[in-house]
Specification:
The chain has 273 residues and is an alpha/beta fold. It is built from nine helices and 13 strands. The protein folds into two domains: 137 residues, D-Maltodextrin-Binding Protein, domain 2 (3-Layer(aba) Sandwich), CATH 3.40.190; 120 residues, 3-Layer(aba) Sandwich (D-Maltodextrin-Binding Protein, domain 2). It is globular, with a radius of gyration of 19 Å.
Length: 273
């Protein structure tokens, strides 16, 4: 068995290669949300260790890119941190693809700042005004007299779309915002900038690097995510072309099983149960 690792432009790829013809029937690709990427990688590795004939590639390029790849037929599973859009279903159906939704985990989006920032809570309205560029100084929301560096995600990101829907409610993001291409890149940007604010999935909120803020007095936790107590709670999805069969079905069954959900929790995300 040979393991290949590549990290290029924020995309991580794991592939296990096996000798012999048996693995060919168990070969499939997963692409999409960088939020889901960590536990998709770990569950794929665990699955392949149990089924050595399997060959799975996992890459992250954003929910929108995952949907496009499923529609184009270049992968078998699309990871998405938002529900598939009606327009994506229409494009898929036009190409003879029938996207089927599988809920694989729970999450909530958490505003994050540098650990040195004294601000601990922001309201939904304050977050909207910050991202719209109407609040530009931390002093206006109880922080230090310093400018706010706004960091956001690109439009192919499912995290951006959920943030845009729930927090921004259609208000445009300030053109002064720095846009990054992945959840990991956003985390590192905030960790390196004491003036910055961003938002990430709960599993990316590493307290050794950043500080998570509560929203309207509600802290992002597994409990508040599952109960929808925090306004940014969401489901995390994988999509297949119709009912999965063979190794794809076996992998998805493993992922949502108690054993598979252990890896979801291990990566800091919220299990289904």
């Amino acid at each position: 068995m040979r393991k290949l690792f590549s990290a290029v432009s924020g995309v991580v790829l794991f592939t296990f290669l096996f000798a012999g013809a048996a693995f060919a029937a168990s070969e499939f690709g997963i692409n999409g949300s960088t939020t889901i990427l960590p536990f998709a990688q770990s569950t794929a590795e665990a699955f392949m260790s149990m089924y050595p004939e399997a060959r799975i590639s996992v890459s992250g390029g954003g929910s929108g890119n995952g949907a496009k790849a499923l529609i184009d037929g270049t992968i078998e599973i699309a990871m998405m941190s938002r529900p598939m859009r009606e327009s994506e279903y229409e494009d898929a159906n036009a190409d003879g693809v029938n996207p089927l939704e599988h809920i694989v985990a729970v999450d909530c989006i958490v505003p994050i700042v540098h650990p040195s920032n004294p601000v601990a809570d922001l309201t939904t309205e304050q977050l909207r005004e910050i991202y719209a560029g109407n609040i530009t100084n931390w002093r206006e929301v109880g922080g230090n007299d310093e400018r706010i560096a706004v960091i956001g995600r690109d439009t192919s990101s499912g995290t951006f779309e959920i943030w845009n829907e729930i927090i921004m409610q259609g208000t445009p993001v300030t053109p002064r915002a720095l846009i990054v291409a992945s959840a990991g890149a956003l985390l590192q940007t905030i960790a390196n900038n004491p003036l910055a604010i961003g938002y990430d999935g709960l599993g990316y909120v590493d307290p050794t690097l950043v500080k998570g803020l509560s929203i309207d007095g509600v802290t992002g936790t597994p409990e508040t995510a599952r109960s929808n107590a925090i306004v940014t709670s969401r489901m995390l999805f994988m999509y297949t072309d119709g009912e999965p069969t063979g190794a794809i079905k076996d992998y998805l069954d493993f992922l949502v099983s108690d054993d598979g959900q252990v890896y979801v929790a291990r990566e800091g995300f919220v299990t289904l149960r």
